[in-house]
Fold Potassium:proton antiporter.
Amino acid sequence: MESIELYLLIAGFLILLSVITSKLSSRFGIPSLFIFLALGMLAGSDGILGIHFDNVEIAQNIGTLALIFILFGGGLDTAWKAVRPVLKDGLILATLGVLLTAFIVALCVYYILDFTFLESLLLSAIISSTDAAAVFAILRSKGILLKKKLTPLLELESGSNDPMAIFLTIAILQILLLPESPSMVEWIFKFFLQFLIGGALGFTFGFLLPIILNRLHLNYYGLYPVFTIGWILFLFAASSMLGGNGFLAVYLAGIVANTKEFVHKKNLIGFHDGLSWIMQIAVFLALGLLVFPSQLPDVAIKGLIISLWLMFVARPIGVFLCTMFGSHTIKDRLFISWVGLRGAVPIILATYPYSSNFEHSNLIFNIVFFIVLFSILIQGTTLPLMAKWLKVELKTRESKDDNEDVVASPLFYHTLKQFYIEANSPVIGKSIVELNLPQTFLILLIKRDKDYLKPTGSTILLENDMLLIQCTSESRYKKVLKRFNSF
């Protein structure tokens, strides 16, 4: 029996190797998830390390846990102001777009494989969602900025279309396997109920999170990330148990939480970004271990045909129909179509037929795995070229005159104020972020006894604190001070 140290050694080695080899993404434009999957395949039964892993249930649980934190981290890093103008198009792409893509792909699968149309629809539903995380990693590494509306639209679609694909996959599986499956009317009702419950809980938990974080006043920063982890796990479980869509709930909670200021916000966003990377590496390695590369050549031709149909027919039709009433140009829509990379979610969903003992489980998993590999390799590596060819890059503004002298702007000392916190002030014992100060009202320095403190959002105000404040508006300054005196 191998010791736990051996498993930890292998896990640590694979994680370190994944991080180091991710440099290839920056240098050669290869998506990181492709590298992680390749490493998992190399470490698997058919690979160099020969690690035998065929536990579908464990891989599925790892994938579910990973998706929870990947979606929350993506939502927490999404600016609502940027998403709001493209909200309609993004939601249509994430729902109707997924449905259209799945139906059009099913037509191809029906004629390529010896499947019924409902079985074909199952496979197409599994590969109907996109993963744009790899897209932005490639664009950032190449220094490519997209036009203003494209970036938030792709972020919103990729973050919110996973729940739709998951719902379709589970629904079709139940129709195929259960003798008395719900009727179409019941499925439509269940669909809206899932999204209603998930959306309501996601908004509520996202709204409450900043309020609670600001009032906890924990003695150790390390407990704040622990609290957010528990909060998100509780939200996902509660939403799922109440019949809602837990994945939608955690993604929406992240977006809503980001609209408010809270203590250690920058650090917490960084923490969840790192946690998302850990989860991505873990799930891709696990899924890479799960596949047997020696079986992929048997499905290569059929997988290639389905992949090309998805890239050049199904995805473009879905995008053009869903954005036909929007303001996007034809080149914008073509680029959105090409950004439809398949990622971790389709492979995770491909494990669902296994757990349901579906007849074609192995064939579906191998075809989906091949499609994902082909998609991220072909579409991922050609994204910079497509962005330039379709002219969707955002041109950086050059200065009018490179030799123009820069005039130094003097500090207007009349905007600096001092304020002394007297006894019984209602702000005593509150953190700065709890005061919800306007952006033009800045606390630059705090003199406390003989010490000078650099304030942060989590700084607790105490009696006898002397505040150095900068505020350009005298009326705004007086208005805020009234809140300090009668908060």
